[in-house]
Predict the 3D structure of the following.
Amino acid sequence: MALGFSGRYGQLEEEEYDLIDRILERLKVSFGEVRFLEIGIWGGVTATGIARKCKELGIPVSATGVDKSPNIPTPLPTPDYQYVQGDSLYQYGKIKGKYNLLLIDGCHCAIHAMCDFLNYSPFLDVNGYCMFHDTASRKDEDEQDYFAQDHSDVGMPDSILGVRNGLKKLGLLQGYRNDWQFVEEHPNPTGLMGMMVYQKLKEL
């Protein structure tokens, strides 16, 4: 279980790389293209990897990123890359168009994870996919430890890793919602990293 800090999709695990590959292959079949919206861009390396994979798959790709950092990715992940700078809690009104792939990987406190889903998933097409990063549980299916997450490099206060708790509060973790369906999870017993994917079944 190796971290791929400079691999296919940036600071993810090999198993998470493979999970993203499978989702991109599904999008090729169902949409024939990838329209990617990323919350928390980490320099654009994930979007760059997705653009590279889409080229291998022979399908068009476009991408938009939202991040608090004032630094736009260089080089741009895609020629038409749209960058929205600012706290994701307040930037959703600037998003235009529709997407079929959403990655939520911004601030990892439960509140941000929930708000990012509620604010940005309406831009996702029906049958599109929402991926959540850092969903691993340190104890069991229903509980996730909290710990400080240092964002001082971009002038943000520490946050807590509570993505899984956010998924529980949204009703996604338990499968309570009829507008979304669980697709796949890469867990991690250390409580770090981890990824969960859901597919949008219908508009509310």
User: Anything to note?
Assistant: The radius of gyration is 16 Å. The chain has one domain: 8-200.
